[in-house]
Design brief:
508 residues, alpha+beta, 8-stranded antiparallel sheet, 15 helices, 28% helix
Length: 508
């Protein structure tokens, strides 16, 4: 997006009241909406240290497993520097690690990529891992050397494994020649200006410019009637995957840097290449929906990318997101890959199920600004062909008149449907809408484009006296590009040519 998104007063009012009727019980909630320029809206409710103070934008919360995207980015930096391949065997990088053996006695190698996309076969381990974040590197490697159990064969399916990310932390330290936290700080946090993000409370001690302080973690066993303080467990081998603290503005910057890889105008490969950032944000392993998400009829696909969950939505396209949860804290961040619009929420108690609320907030904001699922930059040859076909339909009604100097027909076009048959179909469609309007009453083609799924494809309307026509063309991938498909139909709310839910917006 070229400029900051503007939220209307009605949208801001609705966001401020979002949790007023909530069933969530937490000492405090801090939530924000952002785009690639920064925070657009923030609101804090409750008391982040049970001392009467509501959280502000600079109040620091523990973000738990939202840390995993930072861990993955560290691995990809080393990959891009040529220090490892994602297909390297973990056992060759971590000698204490042993690959599983299948029923036939054959060794089944676990690769770095499998750890990154949660397909290693290592089982879900949150209950145990949440309390073992402070394990030293040596103690963790002793656990690995004693033998790890596997829930399935490597590459056979999704299992959310913290141990897998801890192994990645070991690999980063060995290849970088320094501790993980220092590597992350020097590689990401400082260059990106994430001044309120770190791995332990001591990272923020003694600096009066870091805002309000850190939200204390609490648990309740009586639905919020009383609160029990929870200690900060971390700073050990698990820091790379779950120990981070941050603020909404810093998460907005992190999100903007990741999602900017999908912005055609962005050319920044300085820290981590755009290709690697995009690699993080596509599905690598099909995964079931999170337990705290209700069924969404618009959800086409979901899975785990690299350190992020990825969802494909019929209306809004692709989202990246990740939750965090530890005893005393809950969090979720989510952003729209096309626009960079996102939302984040922090709470200072566990089990809050914030991912559903954040998803609803972001959908509400995207809908309020009519954000498309994708913007498709059309090829010049596609635009030229559309102009030629449009002129032919609105003029003579003869398809052959579209074969001008700028447009060449693919051999299949008239072989599939002869010119005389196409002309008859065009004439019938024009008659059904009472004839097309004259040139003075017809908006320019650029204003009549409706949707596209690729630079070689576009659909547009032609106004008639009693209705509208819809035309669709598609070009070949050859040089020069040739017109390989042309369809025309009378436009109705259910026209097969117009999947209105997708909101793919063509750009000339």
């Amino acid at each position: 997006m070229t400029r900051a998104t503007e939220l209307s007063p009605d949208v801001v009012s609705r966001l401020c009241a979002w949790f007023e009727e909530t069933e969530l019980v937490s000492p405090s909630l801090s939530y924000a909406v952002f785009d690639r320029h920064g925070v657009l809206f923030h609101h804090g409710v409750g008391e982040f240290q049970l001392d009467g103070r509501a959280p502000g934008p600079q109040t620091i919360y523990r973000i738990a497993s939202m840390s995993k995207s930072f861990c993955i980015a560290a691995v990809l930096v080393l990959r891009d520097r040529g220090l490892l391949s994602l297909d390297d065997r973990v056992a060759e990088l971590v000698p204490q690690f042993r690959d599983p053996v299948d029923d036939a006695g054959e060794v089944q190698p676990v690769t770095v990529r499998m750890l990154m996309n949660n397909s290693s076969g290592l089982p879900e381990d949150n209950g145990w891992a949440d309390h073992e974040l402070a394990l030293s590197r040596n103690d963790f490697l002793a656990v690995v050397e004693a033998g790890l159990g596997f829930a399935g064969l490597p590459g056979s399916g999704f299992q959310y494994s913290n141990v897998g990310f801890w192994l990645l932390g070991v690999i980063v330290e060995d290849l970088a020649g320094q501790g993980f936290e220092r590597f992350a700080r020097e590689t990401f946090l400082e260059p990106l200006g994430l001044t309120s993000t770190g791995y332990k409370p001591a990272d923020f001690a003694g600096d009066g410019e870091l805002g309000d302080g850190i939200a204390h973690g609490y648990s309740s066993y009586d639905k919020g009637a009383s609160w029990v303080s929870r200690p900060v467990v971390g700073g050990g081998i698990g820091a790379c995957a779950a120990s981070m603290f941050s603020t909404p503005p810093d998460i907005a910057r992190w999100s903007a840097w990741l999602s900017s890889a999908f912005d055609p105008a962005n050319t920044d490969d300085a820290i981590l290449s755009r290709a690697s950032r995009r690699e993080m944000q596509r599905i690598h392993t099909v995964a079931p929906g999170a337990a705290d998400r209700t069924a969404e009829p618009t959800l086409e696909a979901q899975g785990y990318g690299l350190g992020l969950y990825v969802e494909h939505d019929v209306r809004f396209g692709r989202f990246a997101q990740h939750s965090g949860g530890l005893p005393g804290w809950t969090s979720n961040m989510r952003w729209h890959l096309e626009s960079g619009l996102g939302a984040v929420a922090f709470g200072n108690t566990n089990g809050l199920k914030l991912s559903l609320a954040v998803a609803e907030i972001l959908r509400f904001v995207l809908d309020s600004v009519d954000e498309p699922a994708r913007r498709i930059e059309l090829w010049p040859s596609t635009v030229a062909a559309a102009r030629a076909v449009d002129a032919a339909v609105r003029g003579s009604g003869r398809i052959l008149d579209a074969a001008d100097g700028s447009t060449t027909f693919s051999p299949n076009l008239l072989g599939d449907v002869p010119a005389e048959v196409r002309d008859a179909r065009i004439a019938a469609a024009i008659a059904e809408v009472g004839g097309v309007l004259d040139a003075d009453s017809t908006p320019p083609l650029d204003a009549r484009l409706t949707w596209s799924v690729a630079p070689a494809h576009v659909t547009w309307t032609i106004p008639g006296r009693t209705g509208e026509l819809e035309c669709r063309i598609e070009l070949t991938p050859t040089t020069p590009a040739m017109l390989q498909r042309f369809d025309v139909a009378v436009r109705t709310p259910t026209t097969p040519l117009s999947p209105v839910l997708r909101h793919y917006r063509p750009v000339v």
